[in-house]
Fold this sequence. Notes:
The complex is a heterodimer of chains A (209) and B (130).
Chain A: E1 2-3, H1 4-20, H2 22-32, H3 37-55, H4 60-74, H5 79-93, E2 99-100, H6 102-120, H7 130-145, H8 150-168, H9 191-207
Antiparallel strand pairs in A: 1-2
Chain B: E1 3-8, H1 11-22, E2 31-35, H2 46-56, E3 62-66, H3 70-81, H4 84-87, E4 90-92, H5 97-109, H6 114-123
Parallel strand pairs in B: 1-2, 1-3, 3-4
Amino acid sequence: MLTSDLLIEILKNITKVIETNKQYLCDIDAAIGDGDHGFNMNKGFKAVAEKLDVVKDSDCGTILKTTAMTLISTVGGAAGPLYGTAFLKAAKVVDGKKDLDNEDIVKMFDEGIKGVIMRGKAEQGEKTMLDALIPAFEEIKRALDSGSSSPEAFIRATKAAHDGVEYTKTIRATKGRASYLGDRSIGHQDAGATSSYLIIKTISDTINK
Amino acid sequence: MVGIVIVSHSNKIAEGIVELCSQMAHKDQKIAAAGGTEDGRIGTDAVKILNAIKKADDGDGVLILVDMGSAIMSAEFAIDLLDNDLGKKVVIADAPIVEGSITAVVQASIGSSLKEIACDVKESKNIEKI
């Protein structure tokens, strides 16, 4: 069960984790992109954290929609519309709900990822956040289907997202600024996949606390 | 007249293109810049773009010129946020931002439709410079 209070806690923890990893994400991005991913994400989630107090008693849909709208107007880079779309699509699934069950969680992830695919016109294997998100989502479904609890499912998803980030080192970028580098992007991990992994890990750490 | 919105990662580029295009524009032509982020960083902002679309619209629709990457995604997001009536009359141009903007403003100023302008602007991809 995921409550709106727990969702607020997750988002606050994501803000902290992104802030801690700001420079790390920028350094990864600088190797093959424009070097601002950590800085942009930190800007976005700091603004989200400020809005969370206003929506702390709202339903999960409102909390996620507020997160989405804040990210699109504060991040600046591609992560803004991509994560913004993911959170907005997830918000629609849980509109009006304060308590979410496993089915809601699966639907939120499914819609969120579909949103990223639609907005980024991307698919798995293109060195993007999808290379962390899709394996994580598939692991969540597998775990829940086999009777695991959602905290257990997220531990497995974190591992899958981490493996996904490692996989991005082996492939060539065809999307975003890194695609300008062609084969020279091979050997470097994708910054978007890394921030997606950090987000999945933070969800897991928060619900397993 | 069809309104024009210029979306760039850089506010200076967006404002500069508006300045450049205004030389060729009808006095009532609406051209709005949506460059950079609200706090002056390099980047794009879907809400800023949304406001520029509303500013540029006078009923005949709006053509958006974009530079690259997140400019396209943020522009698409802004269109999704519009109510259906206006949303249907906003198109993102598949064209280079400077040449496309000049073509768009000239065409819009002589009263071409959104569909005609979007088509002409795409042709600016083929302009040979040398």
